[in-house]
Specification:
333 residues, alpha/beta, Rossmann fold, four-stranded antiparallel sheet, 11 helices, 35% helix, elongated, ATP_grasp_subdomain_1, ATP binding, ligase activity, forming carbon-nitrogen bonds, RLAN_dom
Length: 333
């Protein structure tokens, strides 16, 4: 069982287990003290500040400390991008954001920089957005933010501190192309999560990215397209570009060309003697074409647009009027 010490720049009345840096410097370590963890809420912005020395001494005293000196230096070493287009800012306390819209970014920032208090700035990039993280001392917070921090601190100190795993060394990087707004995507969220997990076991770092977030495709080793593909579409263009850049691509551009076109597939099946449903290619919606279809098939019929995938562009027609209507729409597509 760990004893928790909360170290601040200036004394805070009514806060148990809270002490100033001067008290921590003078009164610890104590003989026979239990295992101790230190939450350093001092300002660590400046090198050799109280906050810096607090974490440094805690590590020397074999106290578990948050943040570590390594994290303090990492945050100090980062340079804020120049002339950024700021979208919004918020504070994250122990990885917890008061605004639920920041929850995911807050957890990621805390995983990357395990510090009690982080100020996050969300800004626009040429491709999507990114965030900038910086450390803030408890005494620099406004009263409402101090209360939010205290609530998060109470929750955090009641949980077990787990030592973060060292990041896995990946051999390859793979982009998984998705469209979050697609109504019927090829893979749902659960399948995508399992894909990322399975890739990690094979030494592949997989990222879920939209076309806008993808940036330079050549920075990856592979592209896995989990957005509905089409020929006259960005999925085909990205697949072709990725192949030219030497990436392993699924679905590759040739497969998209072949599998998205029903005319090609039917001809390939017929040529190679592969059993397939009876198929007739309808070139027009004329009366002659309608009559030919009715002589070949009974109702209901299944109509497919020549190009499509994952069952898009597939329609059932139950009578001649539906056949004519669907034929007119197809010729206008």
């Amino acid at each position: 069982m760990y004893k928790t010490l909360i170290v601040v720049d200036h004394a805070v009345s009514g806060a148990p287990n809270t002490l100033t840096f001067e008290q921590y410097l003078a009164e610890y370590p104590k003989k026979g003290e239990p295992k101790t963890r230190v939450i350093n809420l001092c300002d660590t912005e400046h090198y050799l500040s109280r906050g810096y020395y607090c974490s440094l001494l805690a590590e020397a005293r074999q106290h578990r400390v948050l943040p570590t000196v390594e994290v303090i230096n990492d945050l100090r070493a980062r340079e804020c991008p120049a002339d950024i287009d700021v979208i919004a800012t918020t504070h994250v306390f122990f990885g917890r954001a008061h605004d639920p819209r920041w929850s995911s970014i807050g957890r990621k920032a805390f995983d990357a920089f395990p510090a009690p208090i982080l100020k996050l700035t969300l800004y626009k990039r040429d491709q999507g957005s990114d965030y900038w993280a910086e450390r803030v001392g408890f005494n620099d917070l406004t009263a409402p933010l101090q209360r939010q921090c205290a609530d998060a601190l109470t929750d955090f100190t009641t949980r077990v501190w787990r030592t973060p795993r060292k990041p896995m060394a990946y051999r390859w990087d793979m982009a998984i192309l998705i469209d979050p707004n697609e109504p019927h995507p090829p893979s749902d969220k659960l399948a995508l999560a399992r894909c990322v997990k399975a890739a990690a076991k094979l030494g592949i770092h997989a990222e879920l990215l939209t076309a806008d977030q993808l940036g330079s495709i050549s920075q990856y080793d592979a592209l896995f397209i989990r957005q509905t593909t089409a020929i006259d579409h960005l999925t085909y263009r990205l697949a072709r570009q990725a192949e030219q850049d030497g990436l392993v691509v699924i679905d590759d551009a040739t497969s998209i060309l072949r599998c998205c076109n029903k005319v090609y597939l039917h001809d390939a099946f017929s040529y190679n003697g592969i059993p397939a449903p009876k198929t007739l290619m309808a070139l027009t919606d004329s009366a002659v074409q309608i009559a030919q279809l009715e002589q070949t098939f009974d109702y209901p019929m299944v109509m497919k647009l020549p190009e499509g995938s994952f069952s898009t562009g597939v329609f059932k027609v139950n009578n001649q009027s539906e056949l004519q209507a669907r034929g007119r729409r197809g010729n206008n597509t």
